[in-house]
Amino acid sequence: MRKPIIAGNWKLNKTINEAAQLVTLLKRQIPDTQHVDVVICPVVTALAAVSEILIDSDIQLGAQDLYWEEKGAFTGQVSGSLLKDAGAKYVIVGHSERRQFFNETHETVNKKAKAALKNGLTPIVCVGEMLAERESQTTFQVIEAQLKGAFAGFSADEMSRIILAYEPVWAIGTGKVATPAQAQEVHLFIRKEISILFGEEVARGIRIQYGGSVKADNIAELMRQADIDGALVGGASLDANGFSDIVKNAQVAALK
Ligand code: PEP
Q1: In terms of C-beta density within 10 A (0-12 exposed, 13-18 middle, 19 or more buried), how is residue 181 classed?
Q2: Which residue of 64, 98, 167 sits with most ligand 1 atoms within 8 Å of its CB, as the best mutation to test the pocket?
Q3: Do the beta carbons of residue 3 and residue 36 sit within 8 Å?
Q4: Nearest CA to 248 among 9, 31, 21?
Q5: Which of 20, 52, 163, 256 has the most CB atoms within 10 Å of its CB?
Q6: Would strands 230-233 and 163-166 be described as parallel, antiparallel, or unpaired?
Q7: 235 CB within 6 A, ligand 1
Q8: What sign results for the dihedral spanned by CA atoms 127, 229, 215, 53?
Q9: Hey, which residues does 124 pair with through a beta bridge?
């Protein structure tokens, strides 16, 4: 049995004070993570403050990116060990916004995921096709190349410590959610690819989140699909009621 995991990606939003307010509400509204793991990923400047507030909560903390080197002359970068030091347990790697706007490549995603594992962080590695790629029916080739690139040189043991997020780029922040059938088709493909690359056992155990315009009213149907193990949520994770309703509906779906 794979325990579903809902993660909130706050992107470039919220001051330290605003982050503290939101997480204080979330703590109250999400008292129980027995059936669904819950992670929030604030901006890096708010990590330490949010970590303090989460001390007596089961909600876990993640970062949105990391650099693969540990220390040195890399102005502006933040390493996995510093994220850990600030209280993070998870880190998003290869989000499509980083691929699109910050030159993230298969190679950098690979280095970042490796560095995260080395520092005891759980990477949430994102894959997903652009609209033009879906329309030209190359979705599976794109995803296959992203998986092979991201996890080149990984052992089965390393792979078993990864969380994947399938995020069709055309569904991110657009309000256009993939249908449960569209998402399930790609999730199943991803699981099969992982099985080919790392074996049946790793494929059966790996959690694959769906991401792209997830809201409280569509999470349950997505989660009912056999290969969807939760969600990576952007916009709707910025609102305490919206995010806690997603978690509640995911918990109900997980128990069915
Ligand atoms: C995301 O940023 O990972 C995401 C899925 O965003 P949204 O939920 O806003 O589509």
Answers
A1: exposed
A2: 167
A3: yes
A4: 31
A5: 163
A6: unpaired
A7: yes
A8: negative
A9: 92, 163
Q: pLDDT tens digits for 136-193? A: 999 999 999 999 999 999 999 999 999 999 999 999 989 888 999 999 999 999 999 9
Determine which one of 104, 133, 167, 193 is catalytic: 167
Domain that holds residue 249: 5-254
17: β partners: none
Secondary structure in 3-state letters for 104-116: CCHHHHHHHHHHH
pTM: 0.97
Question: How is residue 180 written in tokens?
Answer: 């449960």
Residue written as token pair 């128990």: 255
- Among the listed residues 95, 97, 104, 133, the single catalytic one is 95
27 CB-side CA count, 13 A = 16
Report the domain count for the chain: 1
As a whole number of angstroms, the distance between CA 221 and CA 249 comes to: 10
Whether 106 is catalytic is no
Cβ count near 93 (within 10 Å)? 29
